[in-house]
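Colleagues,

Please find the record for the three-part complex below.
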Amino acid sequence: MTPQDLKTLLESSFPEARVHLPRVRRLQVHLPQPQVLPALAFLKAQGFGHLSAISCVDWIEENAFELVYHLWSYTYRFHVMVKTRIPRDHPTMPTARQIFRVAQTYERDIHEMFGVRFPGNPRLVPFVLEDWQGPPPMRKDFDTRRFAEEVYGMRSIETELFTRREQPYKGFRKK
Amino acid sequence: MNWIQATSIVWVPLLAIATGLLYMGIARKVIARIQRRYGPPVYQNFLDTLKLLSKRTAISHGTIFDLGPIMALAGGLLTLLFLPIGGYRLLSFQGDLLVVLYLVVIAPLGMALGAGDSANPNAAIGMARGLTLMLAYEVPFVLAILAVMVKYNTASLWDIVQAQAGGWHHWNLFALPLSAIVADISLQGMMGKKPFDQPVAPHEIASGPMVEYGGKYLAMLQLYHAVAIFVETSLFTVLFLGGGPLWAFLLKTFVVFLVAVLIHAVAPRFRIGQAFTFYWKWPTLLGLLGLVWALVL
Amino acid sequence: MKVQEKPKKSLSNWARGRSLWMIHFCTGCGAMEMPPTMTSRYDMERFGIIPMATPRQADLLLITGYLTVKTLKRVIRTYEQMQDPKWVIGFGSCTLNGGMYWDSYNTIKRLDLYLPVDVYIAGCMPRPEAIIEAFVRLQEGIARGEFDGWRRYRENLAWYRANQAKVMDVNRWGALP
């Protein structure tokens, strides 16, 4: 199946999808949120059995998160990216765990970094950040520099770090 | 009376410790040169022991943990006193070869006891491997010793040394060559050198039984290691190389140790199952053949 | 607990300097420079420094690179398991001022708020020649009795703990949630 064939197949099965092919071996499908999981199941049945990743993009001006599901097929050898927008305040998305088991870990990561809830995922526990006290750090309204200065404390370079060497360097010498 | 002879049980342990530490330093230098780099100076192990003795805190897991290195060092020194070193008959008596065979086992058992009290699974794994390896290498070693005992009809190390006197062609190395080879293979396992260093195995189990020992305990373990090297090479020298005067004795122990280090520098490590089956296959067979040789010839 | 020891040259200080055992704990990307330093080309063993497997046997801790909060917890536990006297070398710019991760939300910026550091090595990452220079400097300082980070840690433990409590939960060292 070529990407063109998949494009016609998707447009006939999902009337609200917008499909375009930006490059060779890449196909992007934009869908509204309720149709994402049926589309994932459909694509898995077509032979796209490998979920490479789930990414999240923060469109802060449009007040939305965009979730991207990256799929790959070993038989046809091209990528399909299923994209959807969810509202930015109280973001939720049903879990894709029933279709791809590995989505559990990617959703755990997005939950920790962006704060998106995935009801149905039994393991939304902290992943990378240990003893984390602040807001989800990958959101664009999180000022990471100010956070680092407050919590960790910067060092003033000029006064503390540079020292002059006492004697000129003579190489390794035995005393 | 000859004062050096009379006080020999005092200065021979000190000589053993010093020689053992020097040999360990020479081993590191030899291994470094084989790997095409400069190594540490040959007195490096003395510095290591001094540094360990000057640690300020001692972290312990209980009384048996403390007793482990003490028992190991004491067992090593005790075994040393029954070997006739360099022509000085220390405490050697009739039948002492069997006593030495028993005593040489006390030190690893002491270490195993101390390792059992470390609250660390690496120590337990190392201890299990060490005891398994001991079970493996004791069999060919005892066969080699039996061959020597049968040939000279005695179990006293002093008599065995006397019987090899009178020139290098009297050595057991040439009279019983099969048993000598078997004893050398067993020696590689006794000293814990590759390919038989499974109990220590620094990359796998984080130095095995020694994993929780630090500071002064580790200093005692270094001293035990030095004494053990000296004892084991001396045993081989006495049995097969006809231990002579002190300078010749030390030279012979150095040659035995150098052979072990050269194999250690280039060999990888067996798995413990492979080491066990290896020791019970060809060395045991060769040991039996050597025993037959000693009986027949 | 006040540890009374004035810096002085002595046999034990000389021996401590000549036989540093480092713990083989590779924290960040700076650990990539340790294998070249340890192996035949820039041989580190001729200075007496060998890598040991456990903190109980070691007396030199190398913080090679950045430290996230997760790793910092484990590093502090490792440091406190080592026996006195012990020294810490901070490799690379990330231990000095955060390095390339200077505005990151998860890495620490100044190592000596949490652990007493004796020698810093600047660079990202420092070459083996720089590492050996730092080792030589540490050895000479130990022989003179100057480096006493372990004493500073014992005397100012409350200050170090307060800094550590600012970034992690010091009541819960067994980390898993």
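Residues 11-167 of chain C form a domain with the Rossmann fold fold (CATH 3.40.50.12280).

Comments are welcome before we finalize the supplementary table.
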